[in-house]
Fold:
Amino acid sequence: MTKAEQFDRATKLAMKGDLTLYDEIVHPDYESMNQRVVVNKEMSKSILSGIGDLITVGPMHRIYENEEFACIHRYSRVAGAEIFNSVMTAITYKNGKVINQQTVREELDYDPGEGQDWNWEDYE
Structure:
């Protein structure tokens, strides 16, 4: 499994309440920004495990990856609403573990799953 695939899997499992892989791949000194607030590893775990019923994250596309950095793209859907986002995440590694991530979201005015070879139900 690549680093990008591992990160995607860890975050999706964390959103379902399984933090095992997330704990394994995220550095103890992890920090990121979420809505202009500094978030550490424990806060990130709380956020992820709390949004699983609110957001569905679609398939991951790896844009770039090496030993120190990965960049991925995913789509997300807000549960119970026709709100879709294009999400790009830049992940930085230290000693093989995620030390930082930066995520940029852009709201879309269409369902990115329409006409594709995947559907949202596969990712719920």
Summary: The chain has three helices and six strands. The two ends are 21 Å apart (CA to CA).
